[in-house]
């Protein structure tokens, strides 16, 4: 099926061709997990999916040059997040060596009651990501500390990871300094603060429900079942081997301050790592050569106390390479699907469902979820369905802030649930828990899209032009809508 298009090429794959690429990807993931029982070999499944997509694209009339361009376009999107991820590995190692993470775990174990632990993790991570605008920075700093505290309190790692991610993505969605918040507002042509106010209607209730659920689950950890001798050994081991004190909180304070001042995330991670490394050398007495080794290969704790060593041997640039390679391969497939118009062809089929607000919002949620799954990027999942559906919102006179909110209710929050996506790969790398394990505990990511769909079904908070005192409505469409 050939029509002209304003994109690089006038070639369009057939619906069947596009659907076959997606079908094969689904089959590979299903086979990998349910038939082979391997949930950590996602890279190879994705490479097979890229090969099949490339063959179908060539049969549709694309040249190898077009295919390579699509793959490189995906890698370009991955470049900055993957550089940040490299520095996260360096930061975690330097923060263990400097005593920052040992101190956070040490004080956390003494202050946090097991009953309120999961609830506290959600709230603290929500506040931290609201201030920094970055769920990734929050997960790499507070998240890693909460994983350690959870281990000390005998809370299953998957539950802790679910609580950390639920809190972290709340701030990432609502914060005016978050990249995804600004991107969604831009895509839908909404005023940033209209967009944030609109999101409070879906993300606010989702956070409250998540916090309540974690509070109730926490009741099961009343502290009596915790083997305190294990926690005591952990505390003693940390105190004997690390200089624990308030000075150790300097690196996270520096990171929070820089992130709040809107310094780029990559620069924040580099500075945070250097501050940690300087403190490790000055205060913990780590040799400079050892410090450089830790930053590259990961910190190795050698206290002889198993609980301390397993908790504090982590981080390092090389430790992140599994995740980084997954990010590049996942986004290579996403870039290929986007540049060969496969995603567009599939989304156009959904276009027929958008003649009324209920169908439009449900279609938007499903399209963003699907794009997240198949493009491996929340950014592509915000941009493509968002831009394709703006004309439909405009036609129905629904305010831009509803469109921008729906972009985030479906694309941003579900990103951590896709194991081969940027978000999933990142959290798996930083928190050391498989996405398949934490998926069911990441309540905010599951509840938010459900609330968006319920609002659509019952026509709640779906504002039309003139119903709210919004700063703006859509810009006048140029020659054609979109």
Automatic annotation (TrEMBL):
Transmembrane helix recorded as keyword: yes
Pfam families listed in its UniProt record: Na_H_antiporter
Highest taxon of the lineage: Bacteria
Keyword Transport applies: yes
Family: Belongs to the NhaC Na(+)/H(+) (TC 2.A.35) antiporter family.
NCBIfam families for the chain: antiport_nhaC (TIGR00931)
The protein, known as: Na+/H+ antiporter NhaC
Organism: Halomonas urmiana
